[in-house]
Amino acid sequence: MDPLALIIIAAHAAAVVALFNGFLTTFGQSRIAVAAIESIARQPEAADSIRTAMFVGLAMAETSGIYGLLIAIVILFANPLIPIYIGFVR
Amino acid sequence: MVDLSVRNVFTFEVLGFEVWITRTIVNTWIVMAALIALAVMARAVIGKPRAVPTGMQNAVEAAVSAVDKLVGGAAGERLSWLGNWFFAVFAIIGASIVGGIVGIRPPTADWATTFALAFGTFALIQAMGVRHRGMRYLKSFIEPNPVLLPLNLIGELARPVSLSFRLYGNVLSGLIIMTLIYELAPIYARIGVPAVLHVYFDLFTASLHAYIFCILSASFIGVAATEPA
Predict the structure, then answer these.
(1) Which stretches does DSSP call E strand in chain B?
(2) Taking CB atoms and an 8 Å limit, are A67 and B169 in contact across chains?
């Protein structure tokens, strides 16, 4: 098999693996949303500060998902191995 | 062919250095021109400010006080004057993503732009920490133990990186999805469907991420400028 094709296949598989952390990110974000909704239901007068804290928490939990997405994008669109391979062949 | 990269528009030389004017920079100028035109128009409509606001003055005052209240709530009342900075950041993040609707590649889909915005936050964190806590802020880097100094420094440097990557990743993923829809979807799916997706990926994410960027930056600054209890 052409080694370049092998690199591209492996890159796509790696991108899929990098995107798997979306499961855990979504799970964590759903926990945050549930906790915030329960707090708002218990104390509707504190809804504003709870919403602010919820957004900060959601953004924090989203960081790992975004990193996985960026890793997948780099692997697919700006793969550092392909220039190395092309230079190696030359 | 799907084109997602940042293309160079033209190049010129200053003192032997090549300066690249990329599409991001040109689009930032367009967004800035639109925002400045909007601000000048709003100022012209208001005319002489009145004690009892009406019409346009009412809308502008509501927007300014909403941002001031947001920043005051997250960073503390005495830092609510930072609302000036955060209003500008909010406007440029929101406007640059909304510009995607009319086909301008969002400047925030380039890491250089988001890192510049996040570096402003980083500089404000250090400046407000030193201004309001002085040496005690610098001392907090070697607490609880001087051995932890490199760890604290890495944690401090990770803030602008994570802030900028969060915004960049979100905007870029929206851009990729919209580009795929426009380039690859069958012809009958290009009528009407992109409008719905634009509402979600441009209008909704624009306001949400501008809000998250501002509130996270403000709370970082607030934590740095307040004495721990």
Answers:
(1) 8-14, 17-22
(2) yes
For every residue of B79-111, DSSP letters joined together read GGGGHHHHHHHHHHHHHHHHGGGGTPPPGGGSH
A56 vs B165, B168, B216: nearest CB: B216
Digit-coded pLDDT (tens) for A22-41: 899 999 999 999 999 999 99
Cα–Cα dist B95/B99, whole Å: 6
Candidates B53, B81, B56; CA nearest to B68 is B81
User: How many alpha carbons fall within 13 Å on the CB side of residue B83?
Assistant: 19
In total, chain B counts a number of residues equal to: 229
Name the more confident of A51 and A34: A34
Q: Which of B107, B116, B88, B100 is nearest to B25 (CA)?
A: B107
Nearest to A52 by CA among A40, A70, A38: A40
Is there a contact between B106 and B99 (Cβ–Cβ < 8 Å)? yes
Please state whether B199 falls in left (phi above 0), alpha (psi between -120 and 50) or beta: alpha
CA-CA-CA-CA torsion sign (A32, A73, B155, B134): negative
* Full-model pTM: 0.82
Distance CA B147, CA B143 (A): 9
Q: How many residue contacts between A and B have a Cβ separation below 8 Å?
A: 38
Q: Give SS3 for B194.
A: helix
Look up residue B13 and give its amino acid: E
